[in-house]
Automatic annotation (TrEMBL), chain A:
Organism field: Azospirillum isscasi
One Pfam entry name: DUF2849
Lineage, top ranks: Bacteria, Pseudomonadati, Pseudomonadota, Alphaproteobacteria, Rhodospirillales
Name the UniProt record assigns to this protein: DUF2849 domain-containing protein
UniProtKB/TrEMBL annotation, chain B:
Top-rank taxon, per record: Bacteria
Keyword match Cell wall biogenesis/degradation: no
Ranges for domain Nitrite/sulphite reductase 4Fe-4S: 130-283, 423-558
The enzyme's E.C. designation: 1.8.7.1
Enzymatic class: oxidoreductase
Residue stretches making up the Nitrite/Sulfite reductase ferredoxin-like domain: 63-122, 358-409
The protein's name in its UniProt record: Nitrite/sulfite reductase
Keyword Metal-binding: yes
InterPro entries (alphabetical): NIR_SIR_4Fe-4S (IPR051329), NiRdtase/SiRdtase_haem-b_fer (IPR005117), Nit/Sulf_reduc_fer-like_dom_sf (IPR036136), NO2/SO3_Rdtase_4Fe4S_dom (IPR006067), NO2/SO3_Rdtase_4Fe4S_sf (IPR045854)
Alphabetized PANTHER family for the sequence: BLR3264 PROTEIN, FERREDOXIN--NITRITE REDUCTASE, CHLOROPLASTIC
Keywords: 4Fe-4S, Heme, Iron, Iron-sulfur, Metal-binding, Oxidoreductase
GO molecular function per UniProt: sulfite reductase (ferredoxin) activity
Length: 115, 562
């Protein structure tokens, strides 16, 4: 099943996120991660794997959850929706935009500070 | 562990070896638990309740550590330690909360045992700041200093801290449990919106006793606490509270998190039946084991020490001259300074709400400055208010100008305590994993709109309280103007309520109309204020005018453009 939102022009994609266990840092599943081939994480949304269809996203999410607990690397693993417009990755929900960047009231902090 | 003993201990409970050993043991327990989690011996499901018992949450950007400030009172040494932790382990700041605690927003799990160890060095911890236990007991920010104080609530709050921390029946309650105590004729601790609200008072013989309100609370289902007993003698203080908690533990719902708080139990059983259950339990409990002996109370009171006040007079000439020469100082005194029980002293509120600022946030540098000022002017002691400000409670009136000058030079002299700029706001969606909408940017926009101190003073007492979700950490239900952030199809909207009141005349605010956008909310607040000013009679507060004229004129103006 495609994840496209028919009400908008841009395709709705998915990315997978979590918090790193040891320090709580927001992380995203890296491209190429899959069950059996290893799971890797990146700290920036622009480097994250994007999934165009639900079946692939579900499989990657399952692999990420298994690795997160098995290797004690990440917690609170879940998928979220985003769009890509003009090369920018924009999460659909404000919550995920804030997680990907940092607090809107302290733009000197979080990932946005190092951008 | 190196203990840094509090210096001139003026009104801050002094730990003994038993207290210190207990806190140190908890630090070591948690250190081992963190090691077991990182090694894989504990799953996240197993570890989560353990970290929550130590005040460690997982928020949007990182772990958040909520440090307990018991009943909001701390020493300058402790504040310096918090400043140091903020600088060393966080990003150079902390956030003071509506429960008189401090939150660090950027904590690493692997650092947490070291942080707790540093806290223990100054007799602090993060216990009872999370989980389904009796949380940090809150009280009046002017406790022990207020001119209208009848009973010093700190003593009884500390007794409850000791009674509840290790109590086996209170470790796995159906849900979190919040107690607030007031010892004055006024209510500055919002006691009737707590699970248990206690009024400490004296009878005609001068004996201490307590009035108990139960079943108040905000959140998804707001309720005003019900009076279940007007007078509980001091010796039965602990027994009566134990009886309440036992009834809650027995009948409270554990099958539905939304119905698990005691307010739902009181509501469903009814005030009469609930009271009857408590009284029956109390009758069974009452006896030597639960008797709070006067010697225990006296010993706890002694461990608080007390400032060595000098014999002074109110309104010294130097204060009068400074006010006459400096209108800004005079305004700050009029707004942020209240009478002290000892003549010649005053309690000063240090606003953490500069116009356009983040309510409750303080940098490590600001904390260190306030600690220095506490040493210089308030016996090394200070308080956190539930309104997210700091208080120096024992300042000589002839030192107020010196204090204000230092605060003003460092951006801490905002004269808005209790005014429209003194906005209570939860961290909201900028930090909190539970939030639906941002709170802080709205608070910033409103305080910037009403930045003019003279205008704020003209408007007078008007509390705005903002929550980013229905959990109501920003107490929006009891704001004279309350604002609740909601998510509508991915967009942030704000629902406005009016008429909330956290004081003795407790009231839950009424929804004014449909939710509006953030920009519209700021305009709506302006409209509400204009309607108030154009309708108010002499001496009326916002709530008085609202009560007299009703919601109609306010609603009409706010939604005129819709």
């Amino acid at each position: 099943m495609a994840l496209n939102d028919k009400s908008r022009n841009e395709a709705v994609l998915q990315a997978i996120t979590a918090n790193r266990l040891r320090d709580g840092e927001v992380i995203f599943l890296a491209p190429g991660s899959a069950v059996g081939s290893g799971v890797a994480w990146v700290e920036r949304l622009e480097d994250a794997a994007l999934f165009e269809d639900a079946a692939t996203a579900d499989a990657a999410l399952a692999a990420a959850k298994a690795q997160a607990e098995g290797e004690r690397f990440a917690v609170d693993v879940y998928a979220f929706d985003l769009r890509v417009a003009d090369g920018q990755r924009l999460p659909v929900k404000t919550r995920e935009r804030i997680r990907a960047l940092g607090p809107t009231v302290r733009i000197d902090l979080g990932k946005q500070a190092a951008a | 562990m190196n203990h840094i003993a509090p210096g001139r201990n003026a009104g801050v409970y002094s730990y003994d070896d038993i207290d210190r050993r207990f806190v140190a043991e908890r630090v070591e327990q948690f250190r081992a638990q963190v090691e077991r989690r990182l090694s894989g011996e504990l799953t996240e499901e197993e570890f989560k309740p353990l970290r929550l018992m130590n005040g460690l949450y997982l928020q949007l950007h990182a772990y958040m550590l909520r440090v307990a400030v018991p009943y909001g009172v701390l020493t300058s040494h402790q504040l310096r330690k918090l400043a140091g932790i903020g600088r060393k382990y966080d990003k150079g700041y902390g956030h003071f909360t509506t429960r008189q605690n401090l939150q660090f927003n950027w904590i690493k799990l692997e650092d947490t045992p070291a942080i707790l160890n540093e806290l223990a060095e100054v007799d602090m911890h993060a216990l009872q700041t999370s989980g389904n236990c009796v949380r940090n007991v809150t009280t009046d920010q002017f406790v022990g200093a207020a001119r209208d104080e009848v009973v010093d609530g700190r003593v009884y709050a500390e007794i409850l801290r000791q009674w509840t921390t290790l109590h086996p029946e209170f470790t796995y309650l159906p849900r979190k449990f919040k107690i607030a105590i007031m010892g004055s004729d006024a209510d500055r601790a919002a006691i009737r919106v707590h699970d248990v609200g206690v009024f400490a008072k004296r009878n005609e013989r001068g004996e201490v006793g307590f009035t108990f309100y139960v079943g108040g609370g905000l959140g998804r289902s707001p309720f005003v606490g019900k009076l279940i007993r007007d007078w509980v003698p001091e010796e039965d203080f602990v027994a009566y509270l134990e009886a309440i908690l036992r009834v809650y533990n027995q009948y409270g719902r554990r099958d539905n998190i939304y119905k698990a708080r005691i307010k739902i139990l009181v509501h469903e059983l009814g005030q009469e039946k609930f009271t009857q259950e408590v009284e029956e339990e109390f009758a069974r409990l009452r006896g030597p084991k639960y008797r709070l002996a006067p010697e225990i109370v006296d010993e706890i009171r002694r461990r608080f020490g007390g400032p060595a006040f000098e014999t002074l007079t109110d309104e010294p000439e130097s204060l009068q001259a400074a006010k006459a020469a400096n209108p800004d100082f005079a305004r700050w005194v009029a707004v942020n300074v209240v009478a002290h029980k000892v003549p010649g002293y005053a309690a000063a509120t240090i606003s953490l709400k500069p116009a356009g600022g983040i309510p409750g946030d303080a940098t490590s540098e600001q904390m260190e400055l306030v600690a220095d000022l506490a040493d210089a002017h308030s016996f090394g002691e200070l308080r956190v208010s539930h309104a997210q400000n700091l208080v120096l409670a024992h300042v000589r009136q002839d030192a107020l100008f010196t204090l204000w000058t230092a605060l003003e030079a460092n951006g801490l002299g905002t004269p808005n305590a209790g005014l429209i700029g003194d906005i209570i706001a939860c961290p909201g969606l900028d930090y909190c994993a539970l939030a639906n909408a941002r709170s802080i940017p709205l608070a910033q926009a409103i305080s910037a709109r009403f930045a003019d101190p003279a205008r704020q003073q003209t408007i007078g007492e008007l509390g705005i309280k903002i929550s980013g979700c229905i959990n109501a950490c920003g107490h929006h239900h009891v704001g004279a103007i309350g604002i609740l952030g909601v998510d509508k199809k991915g967009e942030e909207f704000y629902q406005i309520t009016v008429g909330g009141d956290p004081t003795l005349t407790t009231a839950i605010g009424d929804i004014l109309g449909p939710a509006v956008t953030a920009d519209e909310t700021v305009d709506a607040i302006e409209a509400i204020v204009e309607v108030y000013l154009s309708n108010r009679h002499d001496g009326e507060r916002f709530l008085d005018t609202l009560k007299r004229v009703g919601h109609g004129p306010f609603k009409e103006r706010v939604y005129a453009a819709h």
